[in-house]
Automatic annotation (TrEMBL):
<protein>
    <recommendedName>
        <fullName>Dirigent protein</fullName>
    </recommendedName>
</protein>
<dbReference type="GO" id="GO:0048046">
    <property type="term" value="C:apoplast"/>
</dbReference>
<feature type="signal peptide">
    <location>
        <begin position="1"/>
        <end position="25"/>
    </location>
</feature>
<dbReference type="Pfam" id="PF03018">
    <property type="entry name" value="Dirigent"/>
</dbReference>
<comment type="subunit">
    <text>Homodimer.</text>
</comment>
<dbReference type="InterPro" id="IPR004265">
    <property type="entry name" value="Dirigent"/>
</dbReference>
<comment type="function">
    <text>Dirigent proteins impart stereoselectivity on the phenoxy radical-coupling reaction, yielding optically active lignans from two molecules of coniferyl alcohol in the biosynthesis of lignans, flavonolignans, and alkaloids and thus plays a central role in plant secondary metabolism.</text>
</comment>
<keyword id="KW-0964">Secreted</keyword>
<keyword id="KW-0052">Apoplast</keyword>
<keyword id="KW-0732">Signal</keyword>
<comment type="similarity">
    <text>Belongs to the plant dirigent protein family.</text>
</comment>
<dbReference type="GO" id="GO:0009699">
    <property type="term" value="P:phenylpropanoid biosynthetic process"/>
</dbReference>
<dbReference type="InterPro" id="IPR044859">
    <property type="entry name" value="Allene_oxi_cyc_Dirigent"/>
</dbReference>
């Protein structure tokens, strides 16, 4: 029975093994943490190039924004300067609603959709109570996309131009937002059970230290090299230290529980914690990045694993990790 299972696994593994050029590009990418910016929202309800229109309210489309219950749809220009003709860097698209019985509050719900070179296509999401009679008021930056993924922050609003008769206004936005750092990286785990420089050993199981990792209940302790490339001799950037356990009755799953301890210059001493079900018969499988230390404090993310080299007879393997983590 055990040997049938083993053969099945062997066939599967051979089928899924792919050869990948060791010079394959690897990437380590990172996003910025803090963003501060100032821009102006050109909110024009009358005159040429109207960009804010009432669509519903107690008087229907004739409702005034200065009355409770009026809903406006906007596509206001976002400009670098207060002047309407100054450089446009995006649009404010969404709605705002007069949502105070005494008409003193506009509830804002729109995206700032950037069109400038730096943030082109990225957005930040604005939500909050714009008590516009105050000189300064604060609304939330609740999220974002692209460059601003996972953004959290606030915008201080100030009306810098107001023509109340014609309902035209220019609002200054002073934004402070933190975007989580996002790091993406690719590296290889050199898992060698036999030959020179063994880095993975069975320590217990149904046959004691002679147990095979291809059998249920075998516990392995590892100190595998983490390399930049697939080649075992390529630059080492860390070690995978911890354990993994064959934890499926049909032997198809390795439960991983180890740290990636970085030794390269950039992340030296920092770690990320790997945990999860490595259903190694799959071409690609995903395990969790559950935490980290140093550079990767509070990390959360995932790693997509792929077996890029496998010598089943000798139980040697090279696994590629494509990792995406968010951290502070
Ligand atoms: C992992 O990274 C490599 C190298 O950048 C890339 O070729 C491969 O498509 C990636 N795999 C996944 C699942 O993202
Ligand atoms: C209105 O839009 C036109 C075309 O984009 C532009 O030439 C003109 O300067 C705009 N007028 C104002 C007052 O912004
Ligand atoms: C509705 O329109 C009438 C007539 O223009 C106006 O007197 C009234 O104030 C408006 N009420 C609201 C809630 O907009
Ligand atoms: C922004 O992206 C759009 C669509 O991808 C493109 O057409 C436009 O030229 C870009 N603008 C800038 C300033 O990069
Ligand atoms: C084994 O380790 C030694 C000393 O670190 C090294 O010189 C040798 O290249 C390694 N052999 C393999 C196959 O990695
Ligand atoms: C235990 O070892 C024996 C003899 O090598 C082998 O036939 C059997 O498959 C092993 N069982 C396990 C669970 O490792
Ligand atoms: C990493 O840190 C250790 C201990 O602090 C130090 O000995 C080593 O030189 C550092 N390595 C790199 C590549 O910075």
């Amino acid at each position: 029975m055990a040997s049938i299972t083993l053969v099945k696994i062997a066939v599967l593994l051979v089928l899924i093994t792919t050869t990948v050029d060791s010079s394959e590009a690897r990437s380590m990418r990172m996003k910025e943490k803090k963003t501060k910016m100032v821009f102006y929202m050109q909110d024009w309800e009358t005159g040429k190039n109207v960009t804010a229109v009432p669509v519903a309210g107690k008087n229907g489309t004739l409702s005034s924004i200065l009355n409770f219950a009026t809903v406006m749809v906007v596509d206001d220009a976002i400009t670098e300067g207060q002047d309407r003709q100054s450089k446009q860097i995006g649009r404010a698209q969404g709605i705002y609603v007069n949502s105070a019985l005494d008409a003193s509050d506009l509830h804002l719900l729109f995206s700032i959709v950037f069109t400038n070179k730096k943030y082109n296509g990225s957005t930040i999401e604005i939500q909050g109570a714009d008590r516009f009679f105050l000189k300064q008021r604060e609304v939330s930056v609740v999220s974002g996309t692209g460059y601003f993924r996972f953004a959290q922050g606030f915008a201080v609003l100030e009306t810098v131009y107001l023509d109340l008769a014609n309902l035209n206004a220019v609002i200054k936005f002073n934004i402070g937002a933190d975007t989580d750092l996002e790091t993406e990286m690719v590296f290889y785990m050199q898992d060698w059970e036999s030959g020179k420089n063994i880095t993975a050993v069975p320590v217990s199981g149904r046959n004691g230290t002679l147990s095979s990792v291809l059998n249920f209940a075998t516990v392995m302790v590892v100190d595998d090299a983490i390399t930049e490339g697939q080649d075992r001799q390529s630059k080492q950037i860390g070690r995978a230290q911890g354990i993994y356990v064959n934890s499926a009755l049909d032997a198809s799953d390795l439960h991983l529980l180890f740290s990636i301890v970085f030794t390269n210059e950039k992340y030296n001493g920092s770690t990320i914690e790997i945990q999860g079900a490595d259903r190694f018969f799959l071409k690609q499988r995903e395990v969790s990045v559950v935490s980290g230390t140093g550079y990767f404090r509070f990390a959360k993310g995932f790693a997509v694993l792929e077996t890029v080299y496998l010598d089943l007879t000798n139980l040697n393997a090279v696994i590629r990790f494509n990792i995406t983590v968010h951290h502070y």
